């Protein structure tokens, strides 16, 4: 039980800006193991964003504005961790001529044209989707999308080699197959509890396909995965799930 609590604290500290102390003696393998609880922390993030959105709607804020403010609040909560990864991936893959240049661009903290466009498209899609989802399903949809979007990350981590020997992904350590299965199982269970079964299954399929596409593109572009690739994959999955749920439930 202590190990699970340590993993929860580690995952929370990494995925959010909440002041969560790391467990004593935390090591690389501890962080790799903590990835099994990424979906649980993701579900909590989604719930916070959804409740904030509903509060704004309840006091008369228009749906589109409420969605924008809620998504902005979510970015503050997470430190825009995954959004930063999406932007870096878009800049690197779009602007680099070879693998070395792509990796160099991805490490550059400056935002380029491709990254800006990726963020605009992703934010606009999530904004429109969230505004279209009715009040009774806003929180549930966000819980499922954030859980499933993070539940596929360990699978990418174990299925793809490191594109560079240093960096966030390499330093974080590689989870094993059991961790990936547990993370996927927790994410699927959360989605099933939050949504009608057919919608939960659709979201899970969307997350899996998004992860597969991102993994294949990353392998082709830079030879494997980095922390930015994992962040970008979460954003692609989350956005895809919300758009599909809005089309189905809105």
TrEMBL record:
Record keywords, A-Z: Cell membrane, Cobalamin biosynthesis, Magnesium, Membrane, Transferase, Transmembrane, Transmembrane helix
Catalyzed chemical reaction(s): alpha-ribazole + adenosylcob(III)inamide-GDP = adenosylcob(III)alamin + GMP + H(+); alpha-ribazole 5'-phosphate + adenosylcob(III)inamide-GDP = adenosylcob(III)alamin 5'-phosphate + GMP + H(+)
Cofactor: Mg(2+)
Residue runs in coiled coils: none
Membrane topology classification: Multi-pass membrane protein
One Gene Ontology term of the molecular function aspect: adenosylcobinamide-GDP ribazoletransferase activity
Residue ranges of the TM segments: 37-58, 64-81, 111-133, 139-158, 178-195, 201-218
EC number(s) on file: 2.7.8.26
One of the Pfam families matching this protein, by short name: CobS
Subcellular location, record wording: Cell membrane
Biological or metabolic pathway of the protein: Cofactor biosynthesis; adenosylcobalamin biosynthesis; adenosylcobalamin from cob(II)yrinate a,c-diamide: step 7/7
InterPro entries, sorted: CobS
Highest taxon above the source species: Bacteria
Functional note: Joins adenosylcobinamide-GDP and alpha-ribazole to generate adenosylcobalamin (Ado-cobalamin). Also synthesizes adenosylcobalamin 5'-phosphate from adenosylcobinamide-GDP and alpha-ribazole 5'-phosphate.
Annotated family: Belongs to the CobS family.
Annotated PANTHER family: ADENOSYLCOBINAMIDE-GDP RIBAZOLETRANSFERASE (PTHR34148)
HAMAP family xrefs: CobS
Descriptive protein name: Adenosylcobinamide-GDP ribazoletransferase
Gene: cobS
């Amino acid at each position: 039980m202590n190990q699970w609590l340590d993993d929860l604290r580690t995952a929370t500290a990494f995925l959010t800006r909440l002041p969560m102390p790391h467990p004593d003696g935390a090591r690389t393998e501890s962080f790799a193991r903590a990835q099994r609880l990424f979906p649980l922390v993701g579900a909590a993030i989604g719930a916070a964003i959804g409740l904030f959105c509903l509060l704004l709607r309840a006091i008369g804020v228009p749906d589109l504005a409420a969605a924008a403010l809620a998504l902005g609040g979510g970015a503050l909560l997470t430190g825009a961790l995954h959004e930063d990864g999406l932007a870096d991936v878009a800049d690197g893959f779009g602007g680099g001529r070879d693998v070395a240049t792509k990796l160099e661009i991805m490490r550059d903290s400056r935002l380029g044209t491709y990254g800006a466009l990726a963020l605009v498209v992703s934010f606009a899609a999530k904004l429109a989707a969230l505004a279209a989802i009715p009040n009774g399903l806003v929180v549930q949809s966000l819980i499922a999308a954030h859980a499933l979007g993070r539940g596929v990350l360990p699978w990418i981590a174990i299925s793809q080699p490191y594109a560079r020997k240093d960096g966030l992904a390499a330093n974080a350590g590689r989870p094993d197959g059991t961790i990936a299965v547990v993370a996927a199982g927790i994410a699927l269970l959360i989605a099933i509890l939050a949504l009608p079964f057919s919608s939960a299954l659709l979201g899970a399929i969307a997350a899996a396909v998004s992860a597969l596409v991102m993994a294949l593109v990353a392998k082709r572009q830079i030879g494997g995965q980095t922390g930015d690739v994992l962040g970008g994959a979460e954003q692609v999955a989350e956005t895809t799930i919300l758009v599909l749920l809005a089309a189905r439930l809105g």
